[in-house]
Amino acid sequence: MSDLSHEFSGSEFRTGVTELQGRVRGPVLLPGDHGFVEECTAYNLLRTLRPVLVVGATDAGDVAAAVRFAADHGMPVAIKNRGHQMVLPDADRTLLITTHRLSGIAVNPEARTVRVGAGVRWSEVLPIAARHGLAPLAGSAPGVGVVGYTLGGGLSPLLGRSAGYAADHVRSMDVIMADGTARTVTPENDPDLYWALLGGKGNFAVVTAIEFGALPVTRFYGGGLWLPGERAKHVLSLWRTWQEELGRESTTSVAVQRLPELPTLPEPLRGAFVLHVRFAHLGDAAQGAALIAPLRAAATPLLDTLAERPYEQLGEIHLDPPAPLPYVEGSLGLRTFGADTLAAFTELTGPESDCPLVTVELRALGGALDEEPAVPNAVASRGLPFVTFAFGVGGPDEVAPMEEHLKSYVHALSPWADDRNVTNFVGPDDATTPADVRRHYGADRYARLSVLKRRYDPDNVFRVNHNIPPAS
Fold first, then answer.
1. What is the pTM of this model?
2. What CATH number was assigned to the domain covering residues 219-425?
3. What is the per-residue pLDDT for 6?
4. Which superkingdom does the taxonomy of this entry point to (predicted)?
5. What Cα–Cα distance (Å) separates residue 35 from each residue in 41, 55, 76, 363, 382?
6. What is the pLDDT of residues 60-99, one digit of tens each?
7. Can you give the residue ranges of every domain in the chain?
8. CATH class label, 105-216
9. Which of 132-141, 177-186, 391-400 has the lowest mean pLDDT?
């Protein structure tokens, strides 16, 4: 325990750890213990969690014991599952609770609901739900954890424009509060906490299980077109106006990609500079093919994967990388994507840009994503027409040029930027101050969240996030 700071290295702390080990079924690990590094490793290999203590929770009781221990010792609590864990700059010196052992999945076909533990990924839910003809509002990357994704809103690349955010379909949540007590939260028994959790992204409690509604969808038409990057400006100009005419049953996004030379990529894409047009349609294949025809005709594809698919192949729309990577990231919401925005976009991503980033994407939102659900929640991005997300992959020596280009990209698009963003896309460096977080949520929503934070977590135990401090 020699590397622990002074306040977490005394005999009282050591005695407390020993007592905690006796109360918890899962592992309780200190730096240097076997398995500690594995519990702390995040999806982004450039960012490392350095907690004082790790509790590998096996059930809600373990989570409660860990939270009580943290509160008793004045430690902030960080939560990690097996998904795309975000590591914030202030994530050190915490008590880290890992949830990947909370792995239960239960489907109620009659009620069209799914209940999962906090450690479950969408890739585990999709095939089980599909056996019952049900489609949850999963995201573009099936490797993402269900709970974290849903607490941040949850943006589906297929169902979002017709059914809203994943958060809009939550029925109940089992949580551990900042004082270590357990609750089941529903819109009926605690509408304020229900509202704050869904969109508040981990600021109010630890969610140990969640139940949500699923839709009777079994198939869709979708996939991607990978077009030569040299044709990006022409195709993007067409895409910009084409997507405006799509109905709610269709969803699209585009990404300028400089792909690496990897054997896991199809031969035409290895080392290629491409524009990846993503498209998904709820309806028959002939109708979907007719809708995407103008983009198919805009340039000869290097690869065309558009086809009718079972719903569980949702990940084939974006083909996000499944394995952990060393990367930098940034995003912002856009109020518009007009001709001037397109010019700035292509200047920073086009053939002459020397862009070092692997992917710079633009997602069209709209439809039901703009509408308040029947049971309100704190999701902040309703009415936002576009979100752009960029990331670069590389080792420590490549970070500086990638980060510099990211800053240039964000600055170039700032004239059309919105204060709001899709919460799950807000990176660790995108909102680093309370003022940034306030702008993201908007003054009224932020004020209500802050007041509720004072009620539910007055000591700000859950602050290793884009934090909403308790109202003073």
1. 0.95
2. 3.40.462.20
3. 46
4. Bacteria
5. 10, 11, 22, 39, 41
6. 999 999 999 999 999 999 999 877 777 776 667 899 999 9
7. 10-98, 105-216, 219-425
8. alpha beta
9. 391-400
